[in-house]
Amino acid sequence: MGLFDKIRAGLSRTRQSLTRELLAALGKGRLTEDVLESLEEKLLAADIGIETAQAILEGVRKRARGGDVTPDQLLEWLAEEAKGLLPELPPASTLARHGSKPYVILFVGVNGAGKTTSVAKIAHRLVAEGNKVLLAACDTFRAGAIAQLETWAERAGVEIVRHQDGSDAAAVAFDAYAAAKARGHDVLLIDTAGRLHTKDNLMEELRKLVRVLRKHDPALPHETLLVIDGNTGQNALPQFRGFGSVTDLTGLIITKLDGTAKGGALLTLSREFGAPVRWIGVGEGLDDLIPFDREAFARGLFSAG
Ligand SMILES: Nc1nc2c(ncn2[C@@H]2O[C@H](COP(=O)(O)OP(=O)(O)OP(=O)(O)O)[C@@H](O)[C@H]2O)c(=O)[nH]1
Ligand SMILES: [Mg+2]
């Protein structure tokens, strides 16, 4: 499956309910104020935020110039407007070629968001692109977390640096960086424990990890990705603020889009959070993480079928 087909398949739940509702709201194809209002309701129901929905519809209103619109035309316009709201980025999969070796990516997020799986999926992809990848098992908190990452490392065919359960996560990160440097790894991916952004002591632990890592190099980590469960929708805003107060978030990973009809929230997250979506998760397998592509995403959200 190509990138576009995968994104389309991953978004099918959101798209199918959204498209059906939008076309029902369009009725006879006249874009009256009433129809626009009910289109707005449908966008909001897909968890697209109010400002984002209004911006999209304002674009559609201008394009329609008071005339009629066919269902296909409406979807096309919606897709184009949605795409225009998303930042244009270089593809995420080239992220390891930025000249820093090892290139370090830290994964953070609340419990069960999909951090460990995303680490494995990105490792898998980077290996396929010819990179030597190392994983740091910095979730020393949850029982079984290290073993879980080891299993994924085996599947992805990469090495891992680990200490014992309950050990200091910052020390693992420090050692992993030294190991990556010494052994010539291109990329170091750091898995961390799930934590609630409201728990001060846990957030302090994360702050410490970053501080200790920076003893190697103040530019570390090169990226910090906040992993968000797609089912959280727009409610992810407090998570973004909480984690963002501890470390500069460079991007988002939205997981589990395959299981939610709230995929529209991604438009708002990307636009209003000020950190771009870099990857989206559309399944549990190693191949089910896709670099975010605004064109494919917008069309995957707004198209028939
Ligand atoms: N369907 C689907 N499931 C996913 C996706 N990403 C992760 N999962 C599942 O979500 C569950 C939690 O994933 P983990 O990667 O363990 O999450 P985590 O953030 O590391 O969890 P903690 O370490 O406990 O905080 C697992 O059952 C994954 O298989 C996705 O994109 N789609
Ligand atoms: Mg985990």
Strand content: 5-15%
Helix content bin: 40-55%
Order of helices and strands: HHHHHEHEHEHEHEHEHEEH
Query: How much is the radius of gyration in Å?
Result: 21 Å
Strand order of the largest sheet: 3-2-4-1-5-6-7-8
Using DSSP, what is the number of strands?
8
Average residue-wise pLDDT: 91
Give a structural overview:
This protein is an alpha/beta fold and 305 residues long. The chain is built from twelve helices and eight strands. A hairpin with a 7-residue loop joins β7 and β8 (289-291). α8 runs parallel beside α9 (200-213). It is elongated and about 65 Å long. The model has no long low-confidence stretch (mean pLDDT 91). Magnesium ion binds at residues 115-116, 139, 145, 191, 194.
Task: Describe what is shown at a glance.
It is built from twelve helices and eight strands. It has helices at 3-10, 12-26, 33-45, 50-64, 71-85, 115-128, 145-156, 169-183, 200-213, 237-244, 265-273, 294-301, and strands spanning 103-108, 133-138, 159-161, 187-192, 223-229, 251-255, 277-281, 289-291.
